[in-house]
């Protein structure tokens, strides 16, 4: 046994009293919930099982779970035997190969520390992790098709929050994903293999766990596929690049058992809601009844009796009830709440803990004290690049993550271009596909954390479509009651698009003012009419940092070849709605279909540092043979890029007009 000693002798017992029985029930419910909802043989699962094995089976406890082990060695052995059974392993060597972190760390001393945390009432802190990490195992029967590095370089990070207090988590399929013991194990993989870059991709609204896991496996199989003859090295990812999917709690709209279970498990609250709605509906009902009485007096209607009054009151109540239940069943606001309050903080914690683990490993290798100046220089030189890809509401998650991880916010951050996400991680590209972010956040006075996030990125790419009916209509409906202004609810960044032949439009502007003037061609669509996306009150420096990929006519997100104008707007939406509902296209998420040009472009963007406009256009020409994507490169060239024209930049800087003035372009 190591130096650590048990503070209370085993086995543990609950008190033989009514208070002890109550404590037993509470402890069993808590520990059982952890074991049921945690990844098997992960850190917090193991700690919960250790406590269960330490207690005697009292008060009808299951003796197969609560075994009253007499010493820490017996508990560790019991867990090792459970692992052998779970993994169907012939010997301990197979277990070590499949679950290296668990096999290395779960020993007698680990058991003692866990039990001491329990007795000190520090158990919540000991298991306090809001995410889990899994390794992708490959699709059954297709492991040989997905490339050499697919199963070694693809990981899944999952927020441990459930979609509802009444609904248990949906764990990944163990045939596709195997849990790591904790984030330290992922850090060791990155450190030992000298991984240079990580790309994290997260989903958007209405993406249940099972569907996202399948998408991630399909994407990984493509990204790490064996290179095709005649292809470019950047067409697939290599051994020094990790692809990580991140799932935050999201649920299926309308046909969702969780919605019903959530309501049925809280009947008292449901009755309070119905009672409040009944009282509120009384006011318009009285007004309508009064109007019908007035109409009867002036002979507009006849025979208005009590049955009419009852019908009016019932009609108002059920109309309001139907509308509110519809808004709840589309789960938009529920997903938005979870994205901001669960998804963003949990992902920020993942990056913080990963950076902390990487720093610890590097300090061990260097053998120097943390405050040594050489340590900071070495850490900065060896930072791992982190690319972020967010779809729809996932873009909101990523922007909020960067807000949490940023050191400073708002306009005070203008002089700082620090790309650090910690001591060992640095921010690379931010790729937003149809982001569900209000356009107003890119205006002066509305963009404190957006500015801080954007200025830290190497480059930002916006994939958008004027035909995204989900973002344009459903987001407007879902945000109508929550956003502080009507414009914020109706105009989203993911609906920004470019006119036909944007290059010709730019050439019409004087070269001296082209840097700012080119932003005038950015458009955004309401329903039928379009307007300029950039106004005099806009934060030009934010818009200038984006490279725009207008995918309105791309295969996978569109089924109509018509150009957009006030006469074709409604027919385009109607036709695309039909194809969307029949599953032929995905107007909102088709950017990630593996056959689309946008997805084929991703490996290039992930791997090439600060690609120039010429580089990106070359790749688009390769993958977008039908020329369906309109492209506008960032107005501010990336530092170090070959696109920098010093004379033009200097001229622009001298002639820039103060943003927000009456003379702003």
Poorly predicted regions are: 408-415, 640-665
Report the major sheet. Answer: 10 strands, mixed
The general outline is: globular
Major sheet: arrangement of strands = 3-1-2-5-4-6-7-8-12-13
Mean pLDDT: 86
Give the % helix. Answer: 40-55%
Explain how this protein is built:
This protein is of the alpha/beta class. Helix content is 46%, strand content 10%. It contains 26 helices and 13 strands. The strands form 2 sheets. A 10-stranded mixed beta sheet has the order 3-1-2-5-4-6-7-8-12-13, with helices on both faces. Helix 3 crosses helix 4. The longest helix has 35 residues. It is globular, with a radius of gyration of 29 Å.
Secondary structure layout plus pairing:
Elements: H1 18-37, H2 43-54, H3 72-87, H4 92-98, H5 100-105, H6 108-119, H7 123-126, E1 131-136, H8 150-153, E2 154-159, E3 177-179, H9 183-192, E4 197-202, H10 209-223, E5 241-247, H11 257-264, H12 267-297, H13 306-329, H14 332-366, H15 373-381, E6 384-391, H16 393-405, E7 425-433, H17 448-454, E8 459-464, H18 469-479, H19 486-490, E9 496-497, H20 502-507, H21 514-517, E10 523-525, E11 530-532, H22 540-543, E12 546-550, H23 569-581, H24 597-607, H25 613-623, E13 630-632, H26 646-655
Parallel strand pairs: 2-5, 4-5, 4-6, 6-7, 7-8, 8-12
Antiparallel strand pairs: 1-2, 1-3, 9-10, 10-11, 12-13
Helix pairs in contact: 1-2, 2-3, 2-6, 3-4, 3-6, 9-14, 12-13, 14-16, 16-17, 24-25
